[in-house]
Write a structure and sequence with these properties.
- By secondary structure, the protein is an alpha/beta fold.
- About 35% of the residues lie in helices and about 10% in strands.
- The chain has one domain: 3-Layer(aba) Sandwich (Arginase, Chain A), CATH 3.40.800.
- It contains twelve helices and eight strands.
- Helix 1 links the parallel strand 1 and strand 2.
- It is globular.
- The structure holds zinc ion.
- The site of zinc ion (ZN) has 6 residues, from helix 9.
- It holds the Pfam family Hist_deacetyl.
- Pathway: Ketone degradation; acetoin degradation.
- Keywords: Acetoin catabolism.
């Protein structure tokens, strides 16, 4: 019998750790799992522990020489070895964004193993929905680390699914940063539709993701981008998503939806300029769930992604996501259990919010929101002019 949803999680996810001063801190995963547990949304039967991805699986996307380089950092001494660090530079390693750390290969492989476990569960028909909050490492390229991402779990899982099924796959990425690594991996593949909604690359890493990036060769028209203006709010972001995605899915007819749920577009996130609230992070999973049931027989794999407000935002955003995946979406009035607040408050310099939905008084005011909304509408219009089947 098909189970509705599985939560893929390993306590060893915390080994993916660039150090205490780096924004990509695994504390957010522990705090998220803790909130989901405290809310009573997870039974032991719902959880599955992943294995490390194998070399053959990593090879689906990554070059052997890159994997070999990642693997060479095993001990603390390795991470200080100047010869090794010099060689690693060619692979985007040892940078401010992607510093080296001991056993980073194992840590990266485990995040990939999590998304592959989700892929296998859905491909075998055992479950309809599967979530890996340690996944969503959408910037990693075939021969380099990028933007906190060592191995590209999403691209590897989609490639694995392409090799083990005949499915067409739609990838929907609502991280504040462009999903460049996944787009690049399937840029010429008409069987994988990638859609990325993000803050415009004019102001934010990685700088790509304009509406003109549409794919190449047979894949032309199957890479779609919705670059949003800085300070875009929930309403304009959702309007942009709704203006394109349902129509694209209706034409593309995916057999599976893979979604990336980076929550770094939140107004409290320190790294981006978008102004989403947790309302957006409740609405997106609700929409993707509905689209999965409408267009892809309920098949849905979700992954985490960015999110650098470790305790005030990420745990709430991804608890809202998991609650939707088990079809128990939280009420607008849902509150954070006091036991969770007591456990985590001392780790947060700011007071932790007490409700899942952000309070109106916490939301920043946007004096020019009308102009921003108009500019985002122009972007959607521009994209539709370029892609005939979206008109
Ligand atoms: Zn569902």
């Amino acid at each position: 019998m098909t189970q509705l949803a599985k939560f893929v999680y390993s306590p060893s996810y915390t080994q993916y750790d660039f150090g205490p001063s780096h924004p990509f801190n695994p504390l957010r995963l522990v705090a998220t799992k803790s909130l989901i547990d405290t809310m009573g949304l997870l039974t032991p039967h719902d959880t599955i522990i992943p294995d490390l991805a194998t070399f053959d699986e990593l090879f689906l996307i990554h070059q052997p020489d890159y994997i070999d380089m990642v693997q060479r950092f095993q001990t603390y001494e390795d991470t200080l070895n100047p010869n090794l660090l010099r060689l690693a530079q060619d692979y985007g390693l040892g940078t401010e964004d992607d510093p080296v750390f001991p056993k980073m290969h194992q840590a990266g492989s485990l995040a990939v193993g999590g998304t592959l476990t989700a892929a296998r569960l859905v491909a075998s028909g055992q479950v309809l929905h599967a979530l890996n909050i340690a996944g969503g490492l959408h910037h990693a390229k075939k021969a380099s680390a990028s933007g906190f991402c060592i191995y590209n779990d999403v691209a590897i899982a989609i490639k694995w699914l392409r090799e083990h099924t005949s499915w067409k796959i739609a990838y929907i990425d609502t991280d504040a940063h462009h999903g460049d690594g996944v787009q690049q991996a399937f840029y010429d593949d008409p069987h994988v539709l990638t859609i990325s909604l993000h803050e415009t690359g004019q102001y934010l890493f990685p700088g790509t993701g304009s509406v003109e990036e549409l794919g190449e060769g047979a894949g032309y028209g199957f890479s779609l981008n919705l670059p949003l203006r800085p300070y875009s709010d929930d309403e304009s972001s959702l309007e942009s998503l709704l203006s394109v995605v349902p129509q694209a899915l209706a034409v593309f007819q995916p057999d599976l939806i893979v979604s990336q749920h980076g929550c770094d577009g939140h107004f409290w996130d320190p790294l981006t300029d978008l102004l989403a609230s947790t309302y957006f992070y409740a609405q997106v999973p609700s929409l993707v769930d509905a689209w999965a049931h409408q267009f892809s027989q309920g098949r849905w794999i979700a992954v985490g992604g960015g999110g650098y407000e470790l305790l005030r935002v990420v745990p709430r955003a991804w608890t809202l996501l998991w609650a939707q995946m088990i079809h128990q979406p939280l009420a607008n009035s849902a509150t954070i259990p006091s036991s969770w607040l007591e456990q985590w408050q001392s780790s947060s310099p700011e007071p932790l919010p007490r409700t899942f939905l952000d309070r109106l008084e916490d939301r920043p005011t946007t004096p020019s929101s009308f102009a921003i909304t108009q500019q985002n509408r122009q972007t959607v219009y521009h994209l539709k002019q370029l892609v005939s089947w979206l008109q």
